[in-house]
Amino acid sequence: MSPRPIASPKQAWILTALILLITFILLYSFTTTRSTLWDRDEPRFSRATVEMVNTGNYLVPHFNGKLRPDKPILIYWLMSIPVRIFGPTEFACRFFAPLAVLGTAILLPFIGGSLGHRRAGIFAMAILPAAPLMIVSGTAATTDAVLIFFIVLSLWLFLKLEAANNQAKRLRWMVLLGISLGAAVLTKGPVGLAIPMFCFLGTIVLDQKNSFKKQRILYIGGATILAIGLFLAWAIPANLASGGELARIGLGRHVVGRSLKAMEGHGGHALLWLPFYIPISVVGFFPWTLFFPAGWRALKKASSPGNPSKRFLLSWILPTFILMSLVATKLPHYILPIWPAFALMAGIGLEKELSHEKAEKLTANWDRWLILPLGILLAIAFFIASFLSPLDGTSLPLIFVGLIFAGMTVWATLCFQKQMLLKAATILWCGMALFLATASYAVLPKMEKTKISKPIAELVNQNNFSKTPVSVFGYREPSLVFYLNREESTYLSQDQEVSAWDQQSTPGILIIRSKFLEKFRSKGGLTNTQFLGEVSGINIAKEGRPIKVTVLGRHLPNPPESPKK
Description:
Blueprint: H1 9-31, H2 41-55, E1 62-63, E2 66-67, H3 74-86, H4 90-93, H5 96-114, H6 118-127, H7 132-137, H8 144-163, H9 167-188, H10 191-205, H11 213-241, H12 245-260, H13 277-284, H14 292-302, H15 309-326, H16 339-351, H17 372-388, H18 395-417, H19 421-447, H20 453-461, E3 470-473, H21 478-484, E4 490-492, H22 495-503, E5 508-513, H23 514-522, E6 530-539, E7 545-554
Parallel strand pairs: 3-4, 3-5
Antiparallel strand pairs: 1-2, 5-7, 6-7
Helix pairs in contact: 1-5, 1-6, 1-19, 2-3, 2-21, 5-6, 5-8, 6-16, 8-9, 8-10, 9-10, 9-11, 10-11, 10-15, 14-16, 17-18, 18-19, 20-21
């Protein structure tokens, strides 16, 4: 009797993709521990979560003791779990981002299977975490990775609802869909409902069979009502508790305002910024754009009136891309929810190599130009950075990263030209994994030498002044609030406020930009304060400008003088 095979080819592909996925998620988790929080969004979410845990107020988030109605509540609830377990660390605050990417990637084979492209979904599962923009969001203490998970979960539940063959099953999937949509809205507001809704309605309207359209729309309507109800169950009492600020700022400024006007310098002239997301897609999904045209050609050939894959993916990608292009405020991660659809499209291109259908060529000579120039430019940029970097110990890692991009791009392009798509994908995946490992291990820790918020906080906290009030002038980065870990720090904005601080007779600490300190002392001010230390670095949030900050004490009992940093 012949031995039973350990795994079928299908199981082998799933196992391989899972190993690749888990490898990347482990790299994600390692990356979350290799740097302090990046200004400005990460520390805002993180500190608001810490304050929520400290105060026990789980209804409305606060940052530095003041109301923070910018985003809904779910991300803070989720982040509070690891913060309670591990404490207010970078790993705890970023904990759910890699898990959300893991969950999103695992859903892709199920979505691919529902669309008739299960193997493409398996490929997409390994591709998604190896895209640069996903790497950034999947290792950050922000809403993006969690939002994408709930959006993709909603899309899969919609496909299950579409496939249900009786009313009981449809009602069950409708309820689950409503809960998932509600979670998406509770994560980032109306966009969590709008993006899935575009896909739902586009898929239904473009269905040439015209079967049960009204019923399907009714079920989607029911799920939408449930989602809105879940959101309002939190939003109404939270808005009342905030005195209406949740609606005014959260919806008025951050939803309507960002849509109509470029805020915080993110955007500009409407027509000039209209194509903003085209280069973002090419760079942010690099190098997997290489397989995108092949996927589209395969999708066009395979699609038929009874095959929903083309209309589903188009309804997922195009409306979101157009909507975000029209929104006045523009940031790269705004179109990140279509990255899983991009991964599926690339997976469909790869799928054909294993299908024994070699008669039709799905690649074209121009496809390689989607990554070849960019890969070479990235390599050159890292080579140049290795010579210009002011940080000790970064030259060799940067040269190595440049070699990674040059080598994987050229090698994969040559394989692609020979119709060896799977080999090309393997080379690119290994290259991206090696890039992330190198950046996390050898580059990110070196960059910490330029970041000053944590050293400033350590300078303040190590002198046992935990109950001494802290005031800040000229350095308003949220990361400082997180690392100070105080109930509230006072921000001074006027010269008169600094002069008034100097005249007070109680103990206090002042964190002040050194250039402003020199100005005050030239006018005879701040001369009776005690010097605690000075920290120099680069304010990355302010276009990488050099910065020097001094820590002063007022009426402190014999503070030890710290050496300059």
